[in-house]
Specification:
The protein is of the alpha+beta class. The chain has 2 domains: about 70 residues, 2-Layer Sandwich (Phosphorylase Kinase, domain 1), CATH 3.30.200.20; about 160 residues, ATP-grasp fold, B domain (D-amino Acid Aminotransferase, Chain A, domain 1), CATH 3.30.470.20. Helices cover about 30% and strands about 25% of the residues. The chain is built from 7 helices and 14 strands. Strands 8, 9, 10, 11, 12, 13 and 14 form a 7-stranded antiparallel beta sheet that branches. The chain has a 5-stranded antiparallel beta sheet with strand order 1-2-3-7-6. A hairpin with a 2-residue loop joins strand 2 and strand 3. Helix 1 packs parallel to helix 7. The radius of gyration is 19 Å and the shape is globular. It starts with 17 loop residues before the first strand and ends with a helix.
Length: about 290
């Protein structure tokens, strides 16, 4: 299949001081940053060569929706346009705060390899966990790795009281979005959040909240024991596994070799992924994109 070419929005004139996997960040002064939500897509911590139309707009507007909806301190100042958001500059906490409500993804892999112990949990793919678990990871441009609460404290990133507050805030936000997703006909399988400190050392919700930060499954097709239909970038992950790229990537990383070039995404998969981002936004927010 031929590769589709999609144009990115015209960037600000200055060079971004941080180019993330899917988001560019510009320092605009006055302790503020400009986030540009691009149509780039990443999987397995690798930026893919294809882009997804409307993805950046869906993520930017959904992040704004959640910042307003969650009623928790956040860093958003305002939307500048459909793909750009102005936020307060924070001292970011170097931890990805992950909550998992279902046995899926890397949690399933680690559990079945006996790398993690989960009491009263059977090794059934996509099974609902008795309670959501806090499962933090490191933040890395290469590959995020699981980290324990004890390791976070030992590294000096947070003290015990801050970790407890972060865990409580993360699980609370997960449950709030879980309820909203349920009313929209979805299951929120997991959620990844980022936080930072403001000038008074208050913990502030930061970065973004959307399908690049959670797995979203339609309730009508959910069944434990199988790969789930997903309204996020999971279809792209599944395709990369099917064509053998994930296996090659894992081998290269294990051997300390350069990351192999990812394949171009087929046109039909690009269109379907774009459609799912739009549907997720519209059903979760009740707004049209």
């Amino acid at each position: 299949m031929r590769k589709m070419t999609h144009k990115e929005p015209t960037p600000p004139p200055q060079v971004p001081f941080k180019r993330g996997k899917v988001k560019d960040v510009y320092d605009i002064g006055n302790d503020q940053l400009l986030f540009v939500f691009t149509d780039r897509v990443s999987a397995y911590d690798v930026v893919l060569p294809s882009t997804i139309p409307k993805k950046g707009e869906a993520l930017c507007k959904m992040a704004a929706f959640w910042f307003d909806y969650l009623k928790t301190p956040h860093h958003m100042v305002r939307l500048k346009d459909p793909q750009r958001m102005i936020v307060r500059k924070l001292k970011m906490i170097p931890v990805e705060c992950v909550v998992r409500g279902y046995l899926y993804g890397s949690l399933y892999e680690r559990f079945t390899k006996h790398e993690i112990f989960l009491p009263s949990v059977e090794p059934v793919l996509a099974a609902k966990l008795p309670e959501p678990i806090f499962d933090p990871t490191t933040k890395s441009e290469k590959k995020d790795e699981p980290i324990t609460v004890e390791q976070i404290e030992d590294e000096g990133w947070l003290d015990a009281e801050q970790i407890a507050a972060l865990k409580e805030r993360t699980v609370s936000i997960y449950k709030t979005i879980l309820d909203r997703a349920d009313s929209a006909g979805f299951i929120l399988a997991d959620l990844k959040l980022e936080f930072g400190f403001d000038e008074e050392e208050n913990i502030i919700l930061a970065d973004s909240v959307g399908p690049d930060e959670f797995r979203l499954w339609p309730k009508e097709s959910y069944a434990p024991g199988k790969v789930q239909e997903s309204y996020d970038k999971q279809p792209i992950r599944d395709w990369l596994s099917k064509v053998g790229y994930k296996k090659n990537l894992d081998q290269a990383r294990k051997q300390g070799m350069p990351v192999p070039r990812p394949p171009d995404i087929p046109e039909d998969l690009i269109s379907e992924t774009s459609r799912r981002y739009i549907i997720a936004y519209e059903r979760l927010t009740g707004l049209k994109l």
